[in-house]
């Protein structure tokens, strides 16, 4: 992500302002907590992201797990690709959550869903990031074929213009 941050700051918009970009990661990705930590004010300078915008893709299942004060699974993207023949972002996690949990061939780790949202809120308070994309809401409203699994910098892709 540091390389992306450097690349975007190098590019500019005809000298008017620095280039900018956003990176989105799914809430059920195993690196989600490290990803969020890059925006902490007290993060080590080696990992701290200052200008790159961050976003988190959150499916409905994550909210249900938090409501139940349950553990949420973080799934190996490599295992999902190998097992299901699709990239992690192309899998509807809410629809396939129980199947993925039951699959012994998909490595997973667990964190408490409420703790995840607490961390998310703390980092948003500190930095204003990450952006939040409600994955299932966006895809229910999507009129075209295919899944939306991230957004652009200012979320214009959701305006339908």
TrEMBL record:
Ribonucleotide reductase large subunit C-terminal domain ranges (all copies): 1-158
InterPro entries: RNR_lg_C, Rrm1
Cellular-component GO terms for this entry: ribonucleoside-diphosphate reductase complex
EC number: 1.17.4.1
Record keywords, A-Z: Allosteric enzyme, ATP-binding, Deoxyribonucleotide synthesis, Disulfide bond, Nucleotide-binding, Oxidoreductase
UniProt record, GO biological process: deoxyribonucleotide biosynthetic process
Molecular functions per Gene Ontology: ATP binding; ribonucleoside-diphosphate reductase activity, thioredoxin disulfide as acceptor
Family the UniProt entry places it in: Belongs to the ribonucleoside diphosphate reductase large chain family.
PANTHER family: RIBONUCLEOSIDE-DIPHOSPHATE REDUCTASE 2 SUBUNIT ALPHA, RIBONUCLEOSIDE-DIPHOSPHATE REDUCTASE LARGE CHAIN
Name by which UniProt lists this protein: Ribonucleoside-diphosphate reductase 2 subunit alpha
Gene that this sequence comes from: nrdE_2
